[in-house]
Amino acid sequence: MTATSPIAASAPLRTARRAWLTDLPVLLVAVVWGASYLAAKGITTTHTVVAVLVLRFAVVLPALVVAGWSRLRALRPAQWRGAGLLGLVLSGIFLLETYGVVHTSATNAGLIISLTMIFTPLAEAAVTRTRPPRAFLAAAALSVAGVVLLTQGAGFTTPSPGDLLMLLAAVARTVHVLAMSRIKAVRSADSLSLTTVQLGSAVLVFALLAAAPGTGASPWSVALDFGVREWAGLVFLSVFCTLFAFFVQMWAVRRTSPSRVSLLLGTEPLWAAAAGIALAGDRPGLLGVAGAVLVLAGTTWGRRAAGAGPR
């Protein structure tokens, strides 16, 4: 028999340890994103949505501008325009999500928005005129059935306005992803500059809405009314769910594969449901639990089937 070198035997352990050191921060991003729905619900009302969005992104935007100033100056006019257009779509996503989470449970919000993982490959297949795998279509049907059960956990009724807004937000996220892949000018732009311009465009939209009459409280008055709990929630959304999440994604993609990062981030709806049930007392009922399981199963199956090619 040939003895195995202790050094050789420890190499796989070191590789596995390095992989987990990369995976854990990405998993933490999925956790904070899952908790973000509950955090947003806790500090936002119908009349403060726009003001909270202004404050949320105004907090982190200066840091992004300072960190990427030299690369921002290097952007071409076409890249500025493309990133600005994406920022307009992004502003719509955040408006829909934030208004949606005010009018539904954190559990529903996190699970419904996960349908983006199903909508995006379907929309891409429609644009490119390719047929998605049959397994993917089955997974999509499973996810849709899950959402129906989830939103009817207390009995079959009309879905709440918040549920419908979250569904529209999932569609808007799909449009954003497809636009990023099809606007040629932004493909060569670095991630930091692209994100900074998008967030800047979104903040501009929110600021204009906040200045318009009839859009709720002003950011200044909301900031003055915030107590310690509200400011803690805002800092969590700004620093952890935006700034920290963005840099971890950039860091992780350079050390592992985009597919691995995507798979870990795909656990976001699970954490949203866990936060809603554990911290907010959400009680989806037996139908809702069955729907949540179907959504998670369908989106997981769909992600795998989407990479299998047409059948």
TrEMBL record:
EamA domain: which residues?
A: 24-151, 161-299
Its chief place of residence is membrane
Q: Which keywords does this chain's UniProt record carry? A: Cell membrane, Membrane, Transmembrane, Transmembrane helix
User: What stretches pass through the bilayer?
Assistant: 20-40, 46-70, 82-102, 108-128, 135-156, 231-249
Membrane association type: Multi-pass membrane protein
Question: Pfam families this protein is in?
Answer: EamA (PF00892)
Location(s), subcellular: Cell membrane
| InterPro entries according to UniProt | Diverse_Substrate_Transporter (IPR051258), EamA_dom (IPR000620), EmrE-like (IPR037185)
User: Member of which family?
Assistant: Belongs to the EamA transporter family.
Protein name stated in the entry: DMT family transporter
